[in-house]
Write a structure and sequence with these properties.
single chain; disordered N terminus; 13 helices; alpha+beta; binds zinc ion
Length: 588
């Protein structure tokens, strides 16, 4: 919807700042940043920042209108040549797509953000016309008359369009939190280039259907032309390196599995490589490949060789086999902290343990492993294997991935550490707004999708009260939604169906409101009165009370009295449940 310029600016401000704090990585909190963040949070709690105002461009980007929905992306072939000195890129994208017979080629919306521009478009080898649609979208005129003859018996028709584009792409000022191209130098002054565009969108550098619901079904080919002194890496496997006459090399990489637009990324620099293998639980040999700047080889080798197999052992146990066997697994050193680029994880954690040497949980359990290897690789299951249709449901990416850190600790160090780590990250929850955002307008929910997402999943696990069932659900999600785009509702229904528990009010409470339920209690002798407040009236919470003989009770929003065995009190209700305990007046 259209909004006034003043409101628009205020809203853009709050949204860009929220994005800044929410993107894939968590922020380091220097004192200065803490002050900055406090200012932001104060700003974001104002009524204006909380109000929902979106622009036409937000809708063009976030909604599947007809010009985007009549066709389905099959494959992107992206050719790109960066001009390091001019901070410019020129390129092309051949978009192979399919559509239902009857929906003849029509007007097609393509996203490419300003100041990048489309130079020419070819359809069936003929130049076709196009026009700008809003600030960051374009409308191609694929008229019916351009269409070749088609077999009427075919229900699905394949076609392609070739788009040439160029420009000075937006430069990332603080990647990966604000996106764009990165034209930087390594410590020896040599060019180092890549892109980070999660949230901002891949259309910041190449023309595509920039909506999370439509991944190219057959993957992508990325062809990068660079000076022959540099090496270019992208997702999937290296197909060829061709030397051209101008002292240039053309690196061609292909990924054959479906891939998020924002995960398709080139890395260009003075890279060296080593390889390894991993015996996957799928029974296959998974190819591991590591790329770092030449002078970092010695530091990187022991770090990557130690934590990659540990990560795979834990995640294949909890989530099932690595989902992109055919494309292999890579870690690529990046000038920014990290990102979940599918089959080519971006890594910039300095070859140190923790999150740049720190433990985000404050408990000590986050110090013995490399945060970026674990977190970004966790996304291979949640974000890359299972992708949400709308970024409003991004908690499925970030909540489950933050929880993958908890599960990594549990696998290697035991449950006590996992519980402590999860409670530690829970202290960072702000509850400023719900973690599910608004649909159709390219809106992520609260940055709490990380910490609250993980805290909620731990709560959900306690509620299910059956770890083998919980693990089967995690593995089942990755198997049954393999390489698919889905909604939060699909995940919720999956848990409800597999457990047989009435969990919908629980999901609604924790995902769709920012209210944390309060467990009110009155203790007397061997009795415990309990009820839930600050929540949906329909909320019921099956919980376990630990003790010599653990008891399972169901708490509702009405007072109930339970007989407690001797020595059992409110303290025996596990702290892994995420609610606030509050003693009520004993006169109740
Ligand atoms: Zn993440």
């Amino acid at each position: 919807m259209q909004i006034s310029e003043k409101k628009k600016q205020a809203n853009k401000h709050s949204r860009s700042i929220l994005a800044y704090t929410q993107l894939c990585m968590l922020k380091t909190t220097s004192l200065l940043f803490g002050v900055f963040l406090l200012g932001i949070l104060t700003f974001c709690t104002t009524a204006e920042a909380q109000s929902t105002k979106f622009t036409t461009d937000d809708t063009l980007r976030g909604t599947l209108n007809w010009e985007r929905s009549w066709w389905n992306v099959q494959h992107y072939t992206i050719a790109v040549q960066p001009d390091y000195l001019g901070k410019k890129i020129i390129g092309s994208n051949t978009i192979q797509f399919s559509y239902q017979a009857g929906n003849n080629p029509n007007e097609m919306q393509i996203d490419l953000q300003s100041p990048m521009q489309i130079d020419s478009v070819f359809f069936h080898k003929k130049k076709i016309s196009f026009s700008k649609r809003g600030k960051d979208s374009w409308l191609l005129k694929l008229s019916k008359s351009n269409g070749a003859s088609r077999n009427a018996k075919k229900t699905l028709v394949s076609d392609s369009v070739l788009i040439y584009y160029s420009g000075n792409p937006r430069i990332a000022k603080n990647a990966p939190w604000d996106g764009g191209w990165i034209f930087t130098t390594d410590k020896k002054g040599r060019p180092w280039m890549t892109v980070a565009c999660q949230g901002l969108g891949a259309s910041v550098w190449y023309p595509c259907k920039d909506h999370q619901s439509d991944e190219p079904d057959n993957g992508a080919t990325i062809r990068i032309t660079v000076p022959d002194s540099l090496v270019a890496i992208a997702n999937g496997r290296l197909q060829s390196v061709t030397k051209s006459k101008n002292n240039e090399s053309i690196y061609e990489w292909t990924v054959i599995n479906p891939i998020n637009n924002y995960n398709i990324v080139p890395y260009i620099g003075k890279y060296v490589n080593w390889k390894d293998n991993y015996a996957s639980t799928s029974g296959n040999n998974l190819a591991l490949s590591y790329w770092v700047l030449d002078y970092n080889l010695e530091k990187a080798t022991p770090q990557f060789n130690r934590d990659t197999p540990r990560m795979l052992a834990a995640f294949e146990y909890w989530f099932g086999p690595y989902p992109f066997q055919e494309d292999g697994y890579k870690i690529v050193e990046s000038p920014h902290l990290g990102m979940e680029h599918q089959s080519a994880i971006a890594y910039g954690n300095g070859f140190t343990n923790g999150y740049r040497g720190r433990d985000l949980s404050g408990t000590g359990w986050g110090k013995d492993w490399d945060y970026i290897i674990i977190h970004e690789s966790g996304h291979e299951w949640f974000a890359n294997n299972i992708t949400t249709n709308d970024i409003a449901d991004m908690w499925v990416h970030e909540g489950f991935t933050m929880y993958s850190e908890v599960l990594f600790i549990e696998y290697h160090y035991g449950r006590e550490g996992a519980d402590a780590y999860c409670r530690g990250v829970r202290t960072r929850i702000r509850n400023d707004r719900p973690i599910i955002g608004q649909y159709g307008v390219n809106d992520e929910g609260s940055g709490d999708m990380y910490n609250k997402g993980a805290g909620f999943l731990h709560h959900l696990r306690e509620t299910i009260n059956n770890d083998s069932s919980f693990r089967e659900i995690l593995r089942g999600l990755n198997q049954d939604f393999r390489h698919q785009t889905i909604d939060s509702k699909d995940v919720e229904n999956y848990f409800i169906k597999k457990t047989g528990l009435p969990l919908q009010p629980l999901f609604d409470q924790y995902l769709r409101t920012n209210k944390v339920p309060v467990l009110e209690y009155v203790e007397s002798d061997s009795k415990l009165k309990l009820r839930l407040t600050n929540c949906n009236e329909l909320l019921t919470m099956p919980i376990r009370i630990d003790g010599k003989q653990p008891q399972n009770i169901t708490i509702t929003t009405s007072w109930q009295e339970f007989n407690m065995p001797e020595g059992v009190s409110i303290k025996n209700i596990s702290d892994n449940f995420y609610f606030t305990k509050k003693e009520a007046s004993s006169s109740l």
